[in-house]
């Protein structure tokens, strides 16, 4: 497996959050106290190789891109949609899939904490208010960032099966949420249309043993 | 808060795993198929600033350092132990604390999947076989990497309180394990001395609501 990290330029890319507005007419928010590492982009979007899976991560940096009128991510998503086997969005990253138009007529979910804004992109998207993640054909989308771990467990299980996957998950000692419908966060964040009967707790443990 | 990422040199540091032996007389293991990003080191250990918290992460790269006779991490840990407010180790990273001698007479835990090797370092360490994480004074240590998330939730709660922390955790939609004694992984990995009465499942949900 090869991991290509794609950005506008190769080299270090900060994961810190540039100043941005949280909404129209709101003051500029400065989150420069939020620490984050830089990771190294291996390719520009112009020079990116063929991809089996295109994963668009989340983060508030998406707001800064929007407000700066920078559209490279949605254009890249659109240009690669037909070639990839899986198009994956996590949290605010799902917004780029919506803006690219690839969610039209599809079921998808996104961040529950920022639901109103996060679902303001795209047309005719069937936004699912209570879902930790949603699979619709080759499009997989997850709720807030931590839900991305559980979606990736489900996607890797789909690709490789539990026999190969579970020993690795047990080695890293992660107890995944395996029910995509468990979304207590949609309830506590009062997402319109959320299913109030979802239990707040989910009981999890080592996969293959529970 | 300032995040300093400390390594032997500044600039990109690969998180990929160099070839290494898993144990004495075992063949060299090549895990070059395991993908991982490069992150940017901000300081060398010689030029690192004063630190409030020193966190030593895990990973199989620790084996390659050992086998190459590279001891900079344990020397850095030893040199900073008196100055820091918290000395934190995650998974195989705990081994560097042990090798530095700072765990002598202390309670600590580490990876359950690689328990025998992981606990082979240090002298007079009171290794706790069933614990997702262990706090002993200013030393906090966690089991395998995913347990590090739950330890960090506990440490941040200790530092900032739930009123500030929980809204952020609920925004990222993480449901932390809050009981340090829940360690189903010690049971499934057959760690000697593990508590067999620990339930395999832990029921978790949005902090502050469950």
UniProtKB/TrEMBL annotation, chains A, B:
Residues 1-23 are annotated as: Disordered. Residues 1-13 have a biased composition (Polar residues). This is DJ-1/PfpI domain-containing protein. The lineage of its organism: Eukaryota, Fungi, Dikarya, Ascomycota, Pezizomycotina. Pfam families: DJ-1_PfpI. PANTHER family: ARAC-FAMILY TRANSCRIPTIONAL REGULATOR (PTHR43130), THIJ_PFPI FAMILY PROTEIN (AFU_ORTHOLOGUE AFUA_5G14240) (PTHR43130:SF15). SUPFAM superfamilies: Class I glutamine amidotransferase-like. Residues 38-157 form the DJ-1/PfpI domain.
């Amino acid at each position: 497996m090869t991991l290509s990290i794609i950005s506008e330029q190769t080299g270090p890319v900060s994961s810190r959050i540039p100043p941005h507005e949280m909404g129209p007419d709101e003051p500029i928010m400065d989150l420069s106290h939020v620490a984050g590492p830089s990771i190294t982009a291996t390719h520009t979007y112009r020079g990116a190789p063929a991809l089996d899976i295109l994963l668009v991560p989340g983060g508030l940096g998406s707001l800064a891109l929007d407000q700066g009128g920078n559209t490279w991510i949605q254009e890249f998503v659109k240009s690669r949609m037909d070639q990839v086997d899986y198009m994956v969005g996590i949290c605010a990253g799902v917004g780029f899939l919506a803006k690219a138009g690839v969610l039209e007529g599809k079921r998808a979910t996104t961040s529950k904490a920022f639901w109103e804004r996060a679902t303001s992109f795209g047309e005719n998207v069937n936004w699912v208010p209570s879902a930790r993640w949603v699979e619709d054909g080759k499009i997989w989308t997850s709720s807030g960032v931590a839900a991305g771990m559980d979606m990736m467990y489900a996607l890797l299980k789909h690709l490789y099966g539990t026999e190969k996957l579970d020993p690795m998950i047990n080695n890293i000692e992660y107890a995944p949420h395996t029910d995509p419908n468990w979304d207590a966060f949609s309830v506590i964040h009062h997402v319109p249309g959320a299913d109030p009967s979802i239990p707040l707790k989910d009981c999890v443990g080592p996969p293959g043993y529970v």
